[in-house]
Amino acid sequence: MPSIVLFTNNLRLADNPALAAAVAEGPVVPLAVLDEEAHGDWRPGSAARAWRAASLAALARGLEARGAWLVVRTGATSEHVLSVARETGAASVHMAAAVEPDRAAWLHRLAQTLAAEGLRVVQHSPNLLHEPGTLTTADGRPYLVFTAFSRAFERRVALEAQLPAPNRILVPPKRPASEPLPEPTADAPPLMLASFAPGEDGARARADAFFAEAIAEYDRRRDLPAVDGTSRLSPHLAFGEISARELYWRALRAAEADPAAACGALAFARQLVWREFAYHLLASHPRTPTEPLRPEFARFPWTYDAAALDAWRAGQTGFPLVDAGMRELAATGWMHNRVRMVVASFLTKDLLVPWQGGARWFWERLADADLANNTLGWQWVAGCGADAQPFFRVFNPAGQSRRFDAAAYVRRWVPELSRVPDRWIHAPWQAPEAELAAAGVRLGETYPHPIVDHAAARARALDAYRALRAGGR
User: Fold this and answer.
1) Which residues span the domain enclosing 237?
2) What is the DSSP letter of 5?
3) Cα separation of 73 and 44, whole Å?
4) Which single residue of 94, 236, 281, 282 has CA 20 to 30 Å from 145?
5) What confidence tens digit (pLDDT) does each residue in 140-157 have?
6) How far apart are CA 272 and CA 247, in angstroms?
7) Are strands 28-34 and 92-96 parallel, antiparallel or unpaired?
8) pTM over 0.85
9) What single DSSP character describes residue 198?
10) Are residues 101 and 151 in the same domain?
11) 98 shares a domain with 77
């Protein structure tokens, strides 16, 4: 009998446990339902919606190349799954499980509804290396420190073999009614589709290029915003266009095959384990997308400065590296990881704006919006999460820009500073007025003055942290 494969954020054919199980049973009915209720309070933002549209189109092409098709529907998933099951005679539904609290609860309700109607529902492993809950301390508790988690991971790393993409996919003789594939939304980042190639083929091409050209230098170049030193695979992972398991094994093979590439390959593998840590943490602490893991930070004296938040969002803070990062995000739906840390530190520590506001903005604007990683990253920078950066470590945006050679990056994304000499581009407010004028820059007109004094803002943040600690004694 036919089986339905419900494609959610597992938009790939290779190493897809749900698809492989359905193919083994017989004819397959590939189904994607655009159901905003599936995401609860974390509905996809503008960049993610645009990426999903392009990725579904790529998935449809991949299915057609294997003799199948993709049924697309909009609305309540349960209603469409039941309708498609009646049309095709499908008796089973295969789907990827979810870790995100709202999506997991939605999947549980969906499974109950479908089972009550007589369908066999099978939830397969999400796109992780180990199921959440399988790596715990000796007394069964979740790890809260990454180093300990990664050691436990290394002791248990016995991943299942990758599943090849099926060569042919049998389908029922009659295709159920399908809506047109969605189009990228008008508010999508304007340069996203020119900067990335959504879909499984795009993911594989990006992975191939990364392992061929950048893996050996990854550990030394990944912090440099002006060079292509990162994998840029995060959006592909977020939509399940490539499996974490495949990338992890490729990293280990690269380290074994070339000793010169070992440091870079193992550094990349460690980033995949950090991603894993984020998901395991979210599974054990489902309130962390909105609440600090360290409960004392609920008393932190944040400042609700709407004007400062707006300047940060718009890339108009007067700090070139911060502004460059926020403009890259607006244009492409992505931001370099080192810059993500800098802009997050600036918002939470220089401006004392609550981390939740930044996390929500990233969720709305990132193509790789990933609740587990977004939450862990923001709480790490804000000092209130697992394995957190100490609160007293406040990134100096100008110092970070100099340290990581970001001049070319700033010139690309803040073109009004493109003619400012290197010695001033990281902190143009320190430049002689004549040199700025020669470069066509007038602070307060062509480029904003810094919205805060970093030294004073750092002192204010440390005073707030000391007050928090004193209040807890």
Assistant:
1) 127-159+202-284
2) E
3) 17
4) 236
5) 999 999 999 999 998 886
6) 8
7) unpaired
8) yes
9) -
10) no
11) yes
